[in-house]
Each structure stands twice: as structure tokens, then as C-alpha cells.
Amino acid sequence: MRSKKQNLDITLNSAFHNLNPKIQLYINDVITILGIYITFENIISIFLFGSQTRRTKAPVADCDLLIIVKDSTPQKRINQSKKYLLALEIKYGFLKGKPNIFNQILFAIQRTTGMFVSHFITEKNDFIQAKFHKIFSVNYVISKILAPIKLVLLNMIDNSMILYGVDLRPRIRDHLCGTSLIVNIFKSLVMNLAISMSSILLLPFKELNPIKYSLESVKWSIKSINYFLFHDSKPLDQVIERFKLLSKSVHQKSNTELFLKQFLYLRHNPIENIGFMLGSPKKILKLHVLALQNSKGS
User: Fold this and answer.
1) pTM for the whole thing?
2) Are 285 and 213 within one domain?
3) Is residue 128 domain-shared with residue 251, that is, in the same domain?
4) Cα–Cα dist 298/148, whole Å
């Protein structure tokens, strides 16, 4: 695909043509906005990460794009592009656009935490130095206290594809490697318990779709634990097969398998399931304990 703005060409890698057709259309529109407001001469690289790299059909999946720009890019240009990219998320159904008070509150939470956001724009130096709050435009204090920064970033690097430009992933990996992930697994526990319990508080407000927050907390628990133990990022169904082997007893294995199967089903069929949501905090705790029991000084 070629786009032309500001007398410059941008050609996306061949991997682009293997993506879901809807995602291709979304990325085409993103490229158009970037060309108009940021200009292609300021773009260093664009990469796709998350579930769309594996063409998942899960309805809760969005399209995660990271755009890395030159450090000299005017902030005004970045802010202008974000405004139109936000409208694009609403157009493609990645974000609800209803202006009621509940959606406004959820919108603020999502922007603060980076959940269910489909585009991120960061400067090159912030990316290389793994400045989490800058990369994902999230609250600095919350990210420092709660976010399992290394686990999230390493998962992102392993589960991504370059669509355009220079591959800076080896440089951020060099910055992240060499230290223990043990603190991050405790942060993962705290963060995902908080999200899971918050989803329960949202149960009276069905229009807010609380099940998706419960599923997100379980998903990120699974992904963080997998990287903590195995240092790679695999599709969720493969990770779950690994988890079955970690349980020490037949009873524990059976309970874990049942919960994770239920998670996969709800991920593809996100209907309200109060039993699953109420049980998720306890299961998240047990999964993290299981990870620590099976760790070898990660």
C-alpha cells in the first residue's frame, strides 16, 4: 500500500496485506491522518502489536498501533493527529462514542490506563529508553505503582510486527533485559486484581459492558505469567495448554482448566457471566501464586 502526502511516499511492509480486511482499512485511514498532521518525514516506524498480528476473531480485540516519531516532531502536530485518530477509533467501533456520563468516566479511565486504546504515538528516545508512561500516554504515577512495565513491554515486542520504517525493538529490548521480573509479577497481580474487582462494581451498569474489563484482567494475567515463566509471547490457547501442566494436583489442574476454557469461550462470545466475573479475582490470585511456585528465579 502506498500513500502520498507532503510529496513523500510511505510503503507498508508486505505483512500488511495478510491482515484482516477491516484492519487494513483502519490502518489506511490512520496513515492518511498521519500524513496530513504529522507528515511522513517525521515518522520513524509504525508497528502493529497485540491480537491482530495473529488475526484473532475475538470480538473484544481492537487494533493496537504504535507510531514512533522523531524527537523533534512538534507536540502540536501530535495532538492534532490524536484528535482525529480518536474519531477514527469511534468510526471503526473500537471505542464507544455515546456522550453519556458513564461512557465519559470510562473513557477517562481507559485513556489513563491505556486499556482499549487503539493507537499510541511516542518519540524515538522515549521508546528506546522504555519510558512506559510516554509510550502509552498513561498517568505516570499509576504506571509506576501498578503497571508491570517490563512484562507489558516485552510482551508487546514479542507479539508485534513492523509495518513501516526502522525496527527499534532490539534497542528497547536491550534496555529492558538483564534484571529480575519478580517485582513485575507482583505488580501484575495488584493491577489485574484491581481491574477485575472494578468490573464487578460495574455490574449494575450493563451499558458499560463490564465483562470486557473482567476478560482483560484475566488476559493480561495469563500473558504476564507466561512471559514471567517462559520468556516468550504465544497465542492464548497455547499458553493455556502450558498452564495445565503447572498445576500440582488433579483437583487444581481441573479447576484451572475449567476456568481458562471458560475464559476462552467468553473472549470469543463476550456475554455477561456474573459467575465468571465474581470468581475471577480469586482465580487471578491463584494463577499468580502458581506462577511463583513454578518460577526459577525469573
Assistant:
1) 0.87
2) yes
3) no
4) 14
